[in-house]
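#onboarding

Welcome to the new folks! Below is a worked example of what a typical request in this channel looks like: someone posts a single protein sequence, and someone else replies with the predicted structure as tokens. Don't worry about understanding the tokens yet, we'll cover that in week two.

Example request:
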Amino acid sequence: MPTYDIRLKQIDPLLVASVRASIPTSQDIGRLHEKLLAYLKQQGIQSTQPDLILWHSRHEMRDEGMTVDLETAIPLPTVLSGNEQVGIRTLPGGLMACTVHTGNALSLGRAFVALHRWMEENEYRHAGPVRQVRLQHAEHLAPNQYITELQFPVEKR
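Example response:
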């Protein structure tokens, strides 16, 4: 397993447009992201900051199959009104345990495991949804070139 440099960082609050849903698999994130991009295009907004995925739950088995509650978000330069599908809100700032992962989404679990171990060893617990900041993630890149920062909101136990 690769080693991860885990650091505590104070993160500032962040204004975002977001779409949240319980979806059958994390493969459907693209569908949510497309809704968000269409809304921002309609508003004439182009974000220059990396987009995020917020994990509100782990994968859960339900009657309709495996689902996960997640939110895709794009930072905004200004406040917008939102609509019935897209919410506008400020993500809270706070203390985050963070690490950077290079590689595809299938290997991202290793970074999650490293952060969980670090939290256990250093007596921290989760204090909110995990943030997956997509620092380098574009169509022209091979998945092994993706760069993702994981941010776990934490507090001392």
